[in-house]
């Protein structure tokens, strides 16, 4: 094991500050594992944190990114869940193991990797064993790295909270990382999936991935199309990714007793919508911010048994981190991943 | 049984059109029951329908009001659930017996008494037996008439959907009919109840009814007070009655994994709020519009076994219907009821 | 429409009493529909009722069988859900529309077609419109007739009550009608399915239908095999069809927080099992007796959207009712259906 | 802080081996807290383990008992949840923090204090901070020590799993520690509580504690009495403590869609019952073995806010451990506690 490693970090919030540093491979404590990173998957949030800090108490030099796959190199003497050679993936919010979210009403928990906790754009990380989950057996490193945030968010919304069932009608807004996981997971559970997008080309690709219907948001009234496609039933579950006033459209499109999962970046914007459908159809509206470790383990099991393949728009090299970040602004179809 | 009866009705939407008419007591069909009305409880919605029609397909002459108690006078030959002499209360949305709501995404069901279906401001009504529930044994006629809409809305939000449990912290906004039922039901289940109001006098009365804490919305920052009263935990359940931009405050006050039940009149207004707490605390936000018959039966059982007494602000006579309607505009403390 | 029709009926409980009678096509009431039967699907329970009465208050002449598909011939003037020409299927327990079961603790509801209510082995039936559901569009009459009892039982256990999710491990005991629906529904939802049987030939057919694993109960210890196939995890859901002391094996095979759905004929037998796994793994053990109409509608929607094909072991003619009943004793692979 | 302490321990399984030993106060690791014990509450299971080992991999000298309250004396440098002076109670199954149970199908987790983990009949214990919960503010040390096992078991069955609601009818079998917590918690949530016992004297005391009805199992048919008390509805929830063939009675007494929580000692015995009510009433039958830490925190909050007082039959001194154990055989009314 080399004593030195490379990692991307920055000394201050703001664009254009990132550089590769040479640092010592970290030491591990009694309950830690040392993991050699094999891939990192990016989220738009990584870019927001680098640009604005998002109000988080970051530690500098700050290493960005939260989602990784890797191989265990060494374990502390108190470690029981892993051994050297195990393939693992990280968890996004590492103290949330199962059940209710940590934090309180005044101060919601947002203690994630690549934020309050250190990031993973590093050749090695040393974290408590509790922060990792066994990687799926059937995915390569890049694919596996997409599960902790994008995969789990879609799974947590549709399955853990949404109890999606065969025959349900699901609207997935867009074709980003969470959206395409939503499409794949909803199809896996036997749902009928309607994808909306402003790009005809992306809709074609979504249909090729298994979507039952595509709606071009620019040229069609998507709510009317959902009524038409479902015989006026509406959508049993909507993955609401746009947020803002678009929520009003989702409230119109949702079926009685349906569910709207609000998923989006953590900017200061508002959600708003008319109260009549909220009352008369009584949908559940729930914000979803990733999920707990147990659900990630469920997702890993499902991915293996269903041979589900995450959609990667482009794979970049370790040295191409800036190019990969820039790709996020262009609206990738699925995930953007760095291979180490 | 008299062949003629009196009922309040109107020939057109708009204020000041209501009058008492003399009409024949209706005939009953095979599955109907004839019920002599003993009390009618008013909701603000009754006033809105009389004034604007609320976009509903009303039949004229239109008899207003939806919530009644009465005594069965006669039953059709196919009737099995009731017999003459039984004390009953009406159901608000009579085709919704249990489980999921009727209607679809495009056209939410709003087929209620005193709306699409006939109202109950009549000395006798003849409705299908399925539209009634046995009245609680321990309440008088006026008290019993408050359950179908105000009582059930609070119960459906807190118990049927909310699974409230002992020790939970509940914020009840205001001191109207639904709010005071919310207070009483939440106390019955062992919750800690915080009432907000713009009236110090009403807060005193709410405390006398059992509320643990009162917050004056005008002189205090209620979100900060909720944090203080709960050690920053926040509210496990908020009965959100104000709606509109006030929802943003509720999103701040709610605990992680908490629940906000949006309850309000069916005006065209918007709800809006910041997305960050919606995502990071992942509360369930659900509009509640009354509930199904089985839950009303559960509420009746609970009312009897817990000796819960609905709060009636004032009882009016049959001839004082206009005065009772006018009372609704003054923000009653609990319910306004007409005794027959 | 012919004025006369044929139906199978019996004047008394006991074998060998069934015969075809010529009777008048029934009249319909205000809320009834007249349905021309196109297929009837048999359940083992039909045989038990004919042989023993099962303690039910039957009316003679008794027409057996509960599950049918047909075409609406005429509707009463109060009917709103169907019109002539509609393809429909029956519901097994017609008063149970949604939500909680009817009946009470002392006297559980068992008011089903072909039992307390009339049966369907008749060329025409006239029942309330509430007793029917629109047939799936993609199934023929024989296939559609298998949904009301066998299909719904599996769906109710796995989906409505069990919230089965992708990647879950399901054990299906046997290859009868409910079991094969269980296999197909579990596969549709992305679960991993293990079928147990005492017949190697049937296991081969179950694997061809999509089962992931087959266990021969005669030659293998099925609990040990389930441990081996799941890495000691156990089964997340077991469709327990054998009952009796076999429940003890299921308690051993179930995963922590798993679910055992007990499904079986209504003989007087006992279930029993060791208390230690019941306590330490805390599984939910729930008897399942078919389900409500709303769930049948969900199943119909799922069948259409998933193109799920019920498995029919053999199709008989109307005149071959006795031969079809005899087939039930030989352990059919899937369903036995009479085509009209 | 003294360097030496006293603790009860034994060198081998079997009666009459227990003695008080003088040992060094343990050292604490980075994430541990040192707690001075103030009270220990006994469970019948403590006796079974001392007498038979219950098949567990015990470490000798073995210190018995699992439920304690105490005061934090010192904390490791990585500890964040507690500080010196905090009043705490232990958790029974310390690795189960929230959500699903640990363990797997083959090997259910039973890693509890006073079992696989060390016990608490010691003046000081040094455990990871995760193993403790803040004690309720309104209970003395003896009362607080009764929550981790008996209190949490009743809470987990009725509230966390059972979602008990006002007006529900609950049958509590017996008057032991779990049973009396069940009585008190069910009353706190507004349920109607029926207690069964073989002792008229204990029934009187249960009624004085708030039970609505008492049934003497020796002189009455308790199932018939439950029917009579509930108008044939049956029991919505039964705390089944006897186990064995008694389960058959509970299956008869339960309401449709009701719940039977099986709670009992971990002997090898069987549960058994008739299948007909299991199918036709479709109750949920679930074994309950204590619960997770988050639910214990919920219980502590509820105890404080409801001013719930655990029932202690008798308080013993540290030196009277053998007398306290002997008391367990005589069927205490509530809990037996050792005060330090």
Automatic annotation (TrEMBL), chains A, B, C, D:
UniProt protein name: Alcohol dehydrogenase
Matching InterPro entries: ADH-like_C (IPR013149), ADH-like_N (IPR013154), ER (IPR020843), GroES-like_sf (IPR011032), NAD(P)-bd_dom_sf (IPR036291), Zinc_ADH-like (IPR052711)
Enoyl reductase (ER) domain mapped to chain residues: 14-338
Stored SMART domains: PKS_ER (SM00829)
GO MF annotation terms: oxidoreductase activity
Superkingdom in the source lineage: Bacteria
Organism from which the protein derives: Sinorhizobium alkalisoli
Gene3D superfamilies to which the protein is assigned, alphabetical: Medium-chain alcohol dehydrogenases, catalytic domain, NAD(P)-binding Rossmann-like Domain
Family annotation (Pfam families): ADH_N, ADH_zinc_N
